Amino acid sequence: MNNRTQYLWWITGLVVCSLLYLLGPILTPFLIAAILAYITNPLVNRIAALHITLLNNKLSYNPSRTIATGIVMLFLFALLVMMLFIVVPLMQKEFLLISQKLPTYFNNAKNFLEPWLQYNFGVNLDIDYAKIQHILTENWRTAGNFAKQLALGIGSHGLAIIGWLANLILIPLVLFYLLVDWNIITNKINGLLPRSMIVKTVEIAEDIDAVLAEFLRGQLTVMLLMSVFYATGLWLTGLELALPIGVLSGLLGFVPYLGIGLGLSLAILSGLLQFGSLHDLIPVLIVFGLGQIIESMLLTPYLVGDRIGLHPLVVIFALMAGGQLFGFAGVLLALPVSAAIAVAYRHAKQHYLSSDFYNG
Questions:
Q1: Which domain covers residue 72, as residue numbers?
Q2: Per-residue pLDDT tens over the stretch 89-134
Q3: Which of 216, 211, 219 is nearest to 344 (CA)?
Q4: Residue 4 lies in a domain
């Protein structure tokens, strides 16, 4: 490859990166749909490859890729609806329980904090807990007039809500077309690659695909299992906010130290308000301790492995950079893109170490 061609590739790459940055605000539904398409494409391939025989092999049927895509999307929609029907009533029940027990929480906080602050720091709190309870109670009653507040919000932020709904509708639409034409798109991209680079490019792409498949599916499994573990464990300790704290701790586990740190902080705070004593928090601490042991020594090595090899600082930086550039979709894409860059870096490093420039 001559210098002119190399410059052309560099210029093309810079133009593409600039366009991605400028179009970041509208790329979110496309990026989310691309992630879902990548994860579910193997399932579509398997359904489309089925050979169904009926009537003692007299009638055969091969589902088209469009039919296979429709089946997968119906499965995703059913899964989403099932999660909403399970999670939303449980969360509503949890927060209703909180609102009913607010006076108890304040009394526990008062009985615990005031003697502790007086004994350790000589500080007397002059807080009108009755007034705070009254304000919160009034706010909870006001929150019951949800329909009126929602209508006012739609009237004042109509364009933003319309844009949000448009993006929400756009995700399944883009996902459908990506899944139907996934093989066509990849073949066209493959056809545009320079023939001198095709072997190495395919090798890198296969390595990236293997790493991403292992990471995405493994990490999703770890997140779901840890959510169930934390929610169940905290529920067994008697913590009333076990479900939201457990689910949050598990789902944020893909960020190093964020899931365990935030979940543990919320659990300790909730436990202090509910139980009012430090020794009652020991079972909560045991749950998070066991969770860390199970995740780090059993689930993550077995389901995810060490193929990505990203340092925790690199992971945190990638998540922050992705969120800054592309918002929520950028956070979702940060780790897969970082894993792909890590694979490309390993190949580039091997090429560099075997080059005449390094060994000369």
A1: 23-188
A2: 666 666 666 666 666 666 666 666 667 667 777 666 565 556 665 6
A3: 211
A4: no
